[in-house]
């Protein structure tokens, strides 16, 4: 079989963690990688590259970082590729770009669609105390996350799983399945399923204020926020007039001396950081 030619588009660590399974697989030829522009700065004002930009450079793959993907339409038009594969890219991709792939443009989405279309499916699944989530591989169309579902794979959400654990679980099952799924699509051995727009739910982008915790919350609501925002932006509360970020907590009394007393009981803090201080982590 001829090598399947891919263009990859993603920005976050999740994208980089799953693209590696395609880069290292001899069945595929990666023609280019697209990432959002580098925006973050470290304390020395040096630019921090996106995870996907680093991945491209470490593997000597052509890298594009447009402010808007339409800026590179002509460059992509001159690349011959079978599939555009996107994951956590963070930009709207117009139809004229989607139509450039010879076979299809496909998105790896971090939920079991039709549930949680949008930018933050993992966070919203944790906020809503879902017991399961997964990945959906879908055809990309103009409407966000509304394309036909080609494949999906489910995982369980354990009680103490945070966004970081869910990212890792989803990256693992994607790596285990994505190369074979692409081969099957390439050889037309699939039967895609249309989504039902009437039952779709949405997971809009997270704002910093969404991560704020109040002592008037229930301890369960606070716990869900801590798990959902563990990766970023970090759940926080104003505690003794100081901003306190909380990364992990427990309902069970443990060795940590710090706890928060909510409307219906205590939550014990395992990993946290006061503003201007070092991050503290306790053993359970």
Automatic annotation (TrEMBL):
Pfam families: Formyl_trans_C, Formyl_trans_N. Residues 205-253 form the Formyl transferase C-terminal domain. The keyword Transferase applies. Residues 6-180 form the Formyl transferase N-terminal domain. InterPro entries: Fmt, Formyl_trans_C, Formyl_transf_N, Formyl_transf_N_sf, Formyl_transferase-like_C_sf, GART_AS, Met-tRNA-FMT_N. Belongs to the Fmt family. Signal peptide: none annotated. It comes from the Bacteria. Keywords: Protein biosynthesis, Transferase. The keyword DNA-binding does not apply. GO terms for molecular function: methionyl-tRNA formyltransferase activity. Its EC number is 2.1.2.9. PROSITE patterns: GART (PS00373). This is methionyl-tRNA formyltransferase.
